[in-house]
Amino acid sequence: MFWDLVLRLDVYKKLDKHRGCVNTVSFNSDGDILVSGSNDKMVILWDWQTGNVKLLFHSGHSNNVFEAKIMPYTDDHSIVTCAADGQVRHAQRLERGRVKTKLLAKHQE
């Protein structure tokens, strides 16, 4: 039964903007925005239905982004990321498409 469902899946839309391997994708709480993070250290917020980029920014990480989550109850303005550099970072969407990132925590290994 599960494989029947998998075999019926098809590509809905190709979201092609990252310049490296995409390691994470996640929806916002409403399900209308998709966030992705990549080896290119960029984070992209997509309108996944149209394929349009809503926001693209450098994460502040010095290595591959492995997780990116839009925080609930922030009107999609708060994104937390972690990466192979051992950092956990917070990105705050500001007015006019600007983004401010800051280090929340760092670990080794």
TrEMBL record:
Protein name: Uncharacterized protein
Keywords of this entry: Repeat, WD repeat
SUPFAM superfamilies: WD40 repeat-like
Cross-referenced SMART domains: WD40
Gene Ontology CC entries for this record: Cul4-RING E3 ubiquitin ligase complex; cytoplasm
PANTHER family xref list: DDB1- AND CUL4-ASSOCIATED FACTOR 8 (PTHR15574:SF21), WD REPEAT DOMAIN-CONTAINING FAMILY (PTHR15574)
Placement of WD repeats on the sequence: 15-56
